Amino acid sequence: MLEHLQQPDEHNRSRKPARFRVPDVPLRPQADRMHERFAELGRTAASSAVEKGTTGLEAGVTAAKMLREFMREVDAQRDSPLDRAYAIKNQDLKYPERSYGRVWMETKEYDNRDAKEYTGDDQITVVFLPWDAEMAQSYDYGFIPKWGRSFAVSTPGAFVNKNPEVTKSVFLNAINSADEYVTKLLQENPKQKINVTCYSSANGAGFYIANKLPLENKGRFLSIVSGSGLGREIFASPILEAIKRDVVSRGIPDGDTYNQVFNDEQRGLLLPIHNCESLGDDTVIAIGRNDLYIPAAFGHEIAQKASAANPNIKVIEYPFGHIGTMLYMGHLEHLRHMKSVLKMADELTPEMLGAFENLLAKKNISLPQEDTRLWCAVAQILWGTEEKLNKSRLVIEDPEKRTIRKIADDFFTAVLPESRRGFAERLSTLSGQIRGRVRALQ
């Protein structure tokens, strides 16, 4: 059971959104363009393979252009085109008074224990979603696990607020809801491991819950684009200038003054920097190098303190901005649990991985070895030759005796949102066409 347990205040909390809505221009258009760009790159890769006479491994490695394009913003600039594009088109950032009153929080339980494409049926994850992102939207982007069981908590638009007291109230509602869920789980099974994943400004609640979990119940803790607090991040972010002006207009001169309110009589200190001394060994703190919402320096600040308490914590800085890092990590976690990807990853040779790493190196991109291995496995599944793949464990040991075409199709429909099944099927057909063209060259 967590320390400082407190029953949720039902008067202040609602599980149903009232004025809650997706921002005028949410992540979805950016994600759509990203996926469509992937398809375009796939066609280019296919044409290139035919023209150059590449086969097998070379064709598979060529597919890594997807990843290269996705990371195009790393070209020696401390900026994020995706962050800026979203900020420009999101009117709630220009006129933040629109969101200051949206305090309604939503929670939802997901049960994906029957997901055939994923491992982790026995896992339970508490997810704190990005600021002002709704449930269906977050499930589409991969923020919510499609394996095991999950409890998702939204972060209302009012959370990043000119009035820190409102932020504190929303903060406590999120903690109370998750606490109630975790307490129930541990009453049912005192030995249950619980994962915690948190995005963006929701990291405060994520750090609090993960830090307070008893040692024997700590599962994987994944912190994505976190700050060390809240107030100083608002004052330092080039994206949150309008909110900063509103904060100053209330007589709050700086971020440290803003942060003074985050000390609750029963819960204690609430900010991430005060809840990182007891994190588990399986903790990953992911930082966006070009983050314009929460500058990377704040992520490194919390990471340094957490690592000082537990040197086993992994701290990874990715060459993306705020939104790009969230999208990347959401998809990466799904790849880590996909049966097909894991089987293919086990068969990768040093030559395959080396070729893939060389491709990334040309763009001055350096990824953790585990990431590179997963993406290389994905490339092999989608663009490897049928003859080679039919001899792999992926096909030979498939319990359903599926063909590689069917496995690729199931891969797409599993990793991409259910609402884009048609798009997934088109991409699956494309991967089959690439394999067919490569085969014709042999």
Structure explained in plain terms:
- This protein is of the alpha/beta class and 442 residues long.
- The chain starts with 26 loop residues before the first helix and ends with a helix.
- It is globular, with a radius of gyration of 22 Å.
- The chain contains 20 helices and nine strands.
- The longest helix has 26 residues, at 27-52.
- A hairpin with a 3-residue loop joins strand 6 and strand 7 (268-269).
- Helix 2 (56-62) packs parallel to helix 15 and helix 2 packs across helix 16 (369-383).
- It has helices at 27-52, 56-62, 65-70, 81-89, 91-94, 135-140, 164-188, 203-212, 231-236, 241-249, 255-259, 296-309, 322-337, 339-346, 350-361, 369-383, 386-389, 393-396, 404-415, 421-441; strands at residues 107-112, 124-131, 148-155, 194-199, 218-224, 263-264, 268-269, 283-288, 314-318.
- The chain has two domains: 29-78 and 338-441, no CATH class; 90-333, Rossmann fold (3-Layer(aba) Sandwich).
- The model is unreliable at 1-77, 417-428 and 437-442 (pLDDT under 50).
- The strands form two sheets. Strands 1-3-2-4-5-8-9 form a seven-stranded mixed beta sheet. Strands 6-7 form a two-stranded antiparallel ribbon.
